[in-house]
Amino acid sequence: MLVHFPIAFWTIATGAYGWDAASATESVALVAQLANGAGLAAAMLAMIAGLLELRAIASDSPAMQVAIWHLMVMSSVWVFFLAALVLPTSAGLDHTTARIGAVACAGVGFVLMAVGGWLGGRLVYEFGVAVKEPTRS
């Protein structure tokens, strides 16, 4: 359930970064930063939950390979969105370059998030990772 929050926040942030680069509106830049920051925090909670679930996967199972790829892709997504958050405030970059860099990082992060989401979906729907069996009474 935790994974829905970073996906939503980062989707908003990606759109806002693009809008900010096109219009250079301060309020849109603030939305991008706040949504991105919230996405980074929510993703950290989701990553902790994912690491706890990783321990339950057998090391020789095909699910473990998918889980490792999912972990690597989603960690990369986190780094790209962190870079998008930090770039606009970086000293030494002009304002336009920083905005374009933030849009590029958010765009790459968004595409990788789609790939990571697909891998996470495979873990749940194909391998049943983190799926609790219903109790029967």
Q: What characteristics describe this protein?
A:
single chain, elongated, mainly alpha, 77% helix, 137 residues
* Strand portion: under 5%
Assembly state (oligomeric): single chain
Cα-based radius of gyration, to the nearest Å: 17 Å
**Helix proportion range:** over 70%
**Helix segment count?**
4
Dominant shape: elongated
How would you explain this protein's 3D organization?
With 137 residues, this protein is an all-alpha fold. It has one domain (4-126). The chain contains four helices and no strands. It has helices at 4-23, 26-54, 62-86, 95-126. Helix 1 (4-23) packs antiparallel against helix 2 and helix 1 (4-23) runs antiparallel to helix 4 (95-126).
Please give the structural blueprint:
Elements: H1 4-23, H2 26-54, H3 62-86, H4 95-126
Please sum up the structure shown:
This protein is an all-alpha fold. It has helices at 4-23, 26-54, 62-86, 95-126.
